[in-house]
Specification:
The chain is an alpha+beta fold and 185 residues long.
Length: 185
């Protein structure tokens, strides 16, 4: 019982850490030229907390694995419940096809430099079956874009907040802030 309490306390203590780092970046309080590191464990605690906040229903057990230049996200998703939580319904055919909880796995390559980034989906699986082409486009339009209308998949976007780059290394993400401007001599 004591061990479980200590583990829960340590787990809960990570929640503000990732959020505090994100807040500091967004508030411009990270010095130019410095780096902020997000360990995978810390990211997972943050993603789990945010998931409960964003998706009251339809998403369980989200998890991120950070690899060299890539990230793999997995979650148990009930697409019908997710759409209901967005106060939207699916047509009968889609509801029958997507009814029930599914294991969803998405693998993306992330490239970043010069204040920009690009996220390319390399593979998406639902219950172990690969999804691509039109089916993947439909899932993105029906489930991702309604929640994140400004999401950029497969195209370059500005990082903002004076970030220079995001680097994914096994088990962590490193955010590099833009360097300080050079002084004229």
């Amino acid at each position: 019982m004591l061990l479980a309490t200590l583990l829960m306390t340590a787990w809960a203590a990570d929640i503000p850490t990732a959020q505090q780092k994100i807040d500091l970046i967004q508030e411009g309080k990270i010095p130019r030229g410095s780096q902020v590191t997000f360990p995978e464990r810390e990211l997972n605690v943050y993603v789990q907390a945010k998931s409960k906040e964003l998706f009251a229903a339809g998403v369980r057990e989200p998890r991120i694995e950070v690899l060299e230049g890539r990230a793999v996200g997995t979650a148990l998703i009930n697409f019908v419940e997710l759409r209901h939580a967005q106060a939207q319904d699916l047509n009968w055919i889609l509801r029958k096809l997507l009814e029930g909880e599914r294991t969803v796995k998405a693998e993306a390559k992330i490239v970043s430099a010069n204040g920009k980034a690009r996220v390319d989906l390399e593979r998406v699986e639902i219950n172990g079956s690969g999804i691509q082409g039109r089916a993947l486009d439909l899932l993105l339009r029906a489930f991702v874009l309604p929640l994140y209308p400004n999401a950029k998949v497969g195209e370059e976007f500005e990082l903002g907040y004076e970030m220079e780059s995001l680097r994914l290394h096994r088990g962590m993400v490193r955010v590099s802030m833009k360097p300080a401007p050079r002084r004229a001599k």
